[in-house]
Amino acid sequence: MSTSTAELINTFLERLWLKQGISKHTASAYGTDLKKFYQFLLDFEGEHADLLSAETEVIESYMLWRRQQGLSPRSTARALSALKKFYNYAVTERLRGADPTTRLRQPKQPQAIPHSLAETEVEALLEAPELADPVQLRDRAMLEVLYATGLRVTELVHLTFAQVSMQQELVRVVGKGNKERLVPLGETALEWLQRYQRDGRPALSSQSSEFVFITRRGGPLTRQAFWHRIKLYAQRADIRSHLSPHTLRHAFATHLLNHGADLRVLQMLLGHSDLSTTQIYTHVARERLQQLHAAHHPRA
Question: Annotated catalytic residue: which of 176, 181, 195, 288?
């Protein structure tokens, strides 16, 4: 890749981060998508390939090529999203004329039902850490807060004391797109958080830090490190269900719906900007209604 193309992509990603507050993970994914498309251009057009000059037909060919390669609709949708944002930026900055992605539509995706855990599995996971170890006491508090609030893992590991109100039992979260939401912490999670602050955190590090959950070096955990800890406790608790970094977030949503929560409330707690994103959990509500009907209707 030429230096000028790499600089163009980096400048675009910096502008996107400044204006839309996208996460580092999303920025990295968009950068990868743009570089892959540029490589396709090189193969397609040779040395005359120019990212800024790509036309609609070439982008359509790229989307077709991705499908032929068996790449998932989800990753292809993200790739097209990256291209749409890039060419919108290019037009706005007058780096080119018309946007070649205007008439391109996102590929239809099968609605993936997020995997959750049964309430008994969550209990086993929460009880897996050995509390005599300050690291594992920290992990217990993190798991409790995660399950009680439905935070994204990235939001959890970057949680600061300024975001937590012990008195009001609330967590103030700044999520995707710099959107702020207030999430109840609950008595149980609050008790574990206080226990960790009293008995675990001082034993981990004497260094001052704005972050609630710290390593022995005094800094925050990485998303990957905490995910590794979750897998460790799942193995210890003999949980054989599929796990992902968002499994406890999905469990939070699923169990709330199972106990009668409203979908709009769930939308606010999860920080979804669009109710359609939250509606993926409606299968849970339908299953619950079917179970209630089967258990209580005389002709079920």
Answer: 176
Percentage of the residues of the chain whose pLDDT score is greater than 90: 42
208-249 pLDDT, tens digit each: 899 999 999 999 999 999 999 999 999 999 998 878 778 888
Domain spanning 119-294: CATH superfamily? Intergrase catalytic core (1.10.443.10)
What CATH number labels 3-92? Answer: 1.10.150
Tokens (6 digits) for 36: 């892959």
Annotated catalytic, 176? yes
Which position among 272, 286, 288, 293 bears the catalytic label?
A: 272
Q: Is 296 a catalytic residue?
A: no
The DSSP-derived string for 187-232 is HHHHHHHHHIIIIIHHHH--S--SBSSB-TTSSBPPHHHHHHHHHH
Domain ranges of the chain: 3-92, 119-294
Distances, alpha carbon 71 to alpha carbons 65, 74, 77, 78, 107, in Å: 9, 8, 10, 11, 12
Residue of 30, 62, 89, 281 marked catalytic = 281
152 belongs to the catalytic site: yes
Q: Which of 11-15, 93-97, 203-207, 268-272 has the lowest mean pLDDT?
A: 268-272
Q: 272 an active-site residue?
A: yes
